[in-house]
Amino acid sequence: MNEGGWCVWITGLPGSGKSLIARVLLEKLESRQIRAQIVSSDILRKVITPVPKYTEEERDMVYNAILFVAKLLTQNGVNVIIDATANRRRYRDQARKAIPRFVEAYIQCRLEVCVRREAERKAGAYYAPRDIYAKAFTGTSKTVPGVGVSYEKPLHPEVTVNSDKLDPSQCAQEILEVIIRLEET
After folding, report:
1. Among the listed residues 11, 2, 71, 5, the one whose alpha carbon sits nearest the alpha carbon of residue 36
2. Is the pTM of this model over 0.85?
3. Quick one: residue 117, left, alpha or beta (phi over 0 = left, psi -120 to 50 = alpha)?
4. What is the C-alpha to C-alpha distance for residues 144 and 35, in angstroms, rounded to an integer?
5. Which stretch of 37-41, 120-124, 153-157 has the lowest confidence by average pLDDT?
6. 3-state secondary structure of 74
7. Where are the domains of the chain?
């Protein structure tokens, strides 16, 4: 078995279900006595940029910090689940180059479903910002991935799940199956 932990980067549009799927995945892992740490961009952003502007420079800073933390943890044998949109493919590609046991999990979801979910999200849920799509559609925010700025879909993710067709448990199960294969190598 390889030394060091693995890293799964759960990526997708805001509202696609990344945070919920990450938490369900963690529960499934723990039921198998596999420990992991979730690294959430929304939580880390509150520390690095308490009043975020979501500029390209700010995003670079946040995603560099996520990569730094994930790399340190995996080098010390901690398994990591990154819960982060990472709208630029280069963020995820940098992680793939830096972390030997890396899995990209793409949460595919139609924009209209993401918009509805985000509008229905309870205040404070998963530390996610509120009303981002409403702000994007009214022109108040021009930095929302998939609306104001592009979201670059993964080219070759290890796993793709469709969260507007599967429930969070089914999505997490498909990701878990990839992790189990990784654990066996």
Report:
1. 5
2. yes
3. alpha
4. 33
5. 120-124
6. helix
7. 7-183
Of 37, 13, 54, which is closest to residue 154 (Cα–Cα)?
A: 13
pLDDT score of 52: 87
**Cα–chain center distance at 141:** 21
CA proximity to 168, closest of 93, 92, 83, 102 = 83
What CATH number does domain 7-183 carry, 3.10.320.10, 1.20.1730.10, 3.40.50.300, 3.30.70.270? 3.40.50.300
Instruction: Please state, in angstroms and rounded to a whole number, the distance separating the CA atoms of residues 28 and 25.
Output: 5
Q: What is the pLDDT of residue 124?
A: 61
Collect all residues with Cβ–Cβ distance below 8 Å to 121 and sequence separation of at least 6.
Answer: 15, 128, 130
